[in-house]
C-alpha cells in the first residue's frame, strides 16, 4: 500500500477505487506523528493529545471527580480523563457507537434529544467538575452553514454546562476558526471567571478548529441572572 519516500516520509501508491482525496488523507495519516504516538500509547485517536495539551496548560483534570464528555466517539478524550483522573466518574454521549471503556457510562443517542441531559446526570450521580464538548455538526460543504450548525451545538452544550456544573467547574468546547461568537463569549464571561481560546499543538495547522476554555463557574445564580438579562435584551 505504501512505500518509503524521501526523508523517511511514506508515500501511498494509487489504488483502484481510491479517490485522490482519500489517498491524500491516508498519506497524511501515515506521516502524522500524533497518529503514530496514539497507536503506540493506546489512545483511540490523535485527538487525545489535544486534551492532554489543554490539560497541561489549563489544569482541567486536576482534582476532577465527575466529568461529562459530549461527542465522546471514538473515546480518546475519555481515555485521557481515565488516565489523568482515574478516580473520576465519567459519562459520555454520541450519535455514533463507541466501544466500551472501563468504568465509563456511554449513551448512543442525540445530545439534542430532550431526554439526554437527564440521562447523563442520572448516570453521573452528581454535579460535574468538567463538561467537555468535542461535538461538531456534520458538514454540508458550505463554510458559513457548517460554522452556524456547530455553534448551535456549542451554545446548547454551554447551557447544559451552566445547568449542571458545580461552582468552580469548567467547560471546554470545540469551535471553528474565529472562536465562539461575541454574544456567546459575553455570556460565558458572565458565568465563568475566565474564558480563553486556544489551539493546542496537536490540532493540525490547516484545521479551522479552536477550543474555548471557560473556568471558574460562578454558580447557577449567576447563570440564571445572565438568562434573565438576555431575555430583557
Automatic annotation (TrEMBL):
InterPro entries on file: RNA_methyltr_RlmE, RNA_MeTrfase_FtsJ_dom, rRNA-MeTfrase_E, SAM-dependent_MTases_sf
Q: Enumerate the residue ranges of region (Disordered).
A: 1-20
**Which Enzyme Commission number(s) are on file for it?**
2.1.1.166
The reply on keyword Hydrolase is: no
Known catalysed reaction(s)? Answer: uridine(2552) in 23S rRNA + S-adenosyl-L-methionine = 2'-O-methyluridine(2552) in 23S rRNA + S-adenosyl-L-homocysteine + H(+)
User: Which HAMAP family does this one have?
Assistant: RNA_methyltr_E
Q: Which family does it belong to?
A: Belongs to the class I-like SAM-binding methyltransferase superfamily. RNA methyltransferase RlmE family.
- What does it do? Specifically methylates the uridine in position 2552 of 23S rRNA at the 2'-O position of the ribose in the fully assembled 50S ribosomal subunit.
Name of the protein in question:
Ribosomal RNA large subunit methyltransferase E
Amino acid at each position: 500500500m505504501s512505500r518509503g519516500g524521501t526523508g523517511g516520509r511514506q508515500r501511498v501508491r494509487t489504488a483502484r477505487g481510491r479517490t485522490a482525496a482519500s489517498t491524500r488523507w491516508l498519506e497524511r495519516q501515515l506521516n502524522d506523528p500524533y497518529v503514530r504516538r496514539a497507536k503506540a500509547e493506546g489512545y483511540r485517536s490523535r485527538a487525545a493529545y489535544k486534551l492532554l495539551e489543554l490539560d497541561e496548560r489549563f489544569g482541567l483534570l486536576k482534582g476532577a471527580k465527575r466529568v461529562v464528555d459530549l461527542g465522546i466517539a471514538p473515546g480518546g478524550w475519555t481515555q485521557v480523563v481515565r488516565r489523568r483522573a482515574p478516580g473520576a466518574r465519567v459519562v459520555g454521549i454520541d450519535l455514533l457507537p463507541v466501544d466500551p471503556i472501563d468504568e465509563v457510562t456511554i449513551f448512543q443517542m442525540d445530545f439534542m434529544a430532550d431526554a439526554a441531559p437527564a440521562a447523563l446526570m442520572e448516570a453521573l450521580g452528581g454535579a460535574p467538575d468538567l463538561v467537555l464538548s468535542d461535538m461538531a455538526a456534520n458538514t454540508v460543504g458550505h463554510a458559513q452553514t457548517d460554522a452556524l450548525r456547530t455553534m448551535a451545538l456549542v451554545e446548547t452544550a454551554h447551557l447544559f454546562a451552566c445547568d449542571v456544573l458545580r461552582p468552580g467547574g469548567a467547560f471546554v468546547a470545540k469551535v471553528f476558526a474565529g472562536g465562539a461568537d461575541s454574544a456567546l463569549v459575553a455570556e460565558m464571561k458572565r458565568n465563568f471567571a475566565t474564558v480563553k481560546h486556544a489551539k493546542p499543538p496537536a490540532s493540525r495547522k490547516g484545521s479551522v478548529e479552536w477550543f474555548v476554555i471557560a473556568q471558574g463557574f460562578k454558580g447557577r445564580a449567576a447563570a440564571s441572572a445572565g438568562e434573565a438579562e438576555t431575555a430583557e435584551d
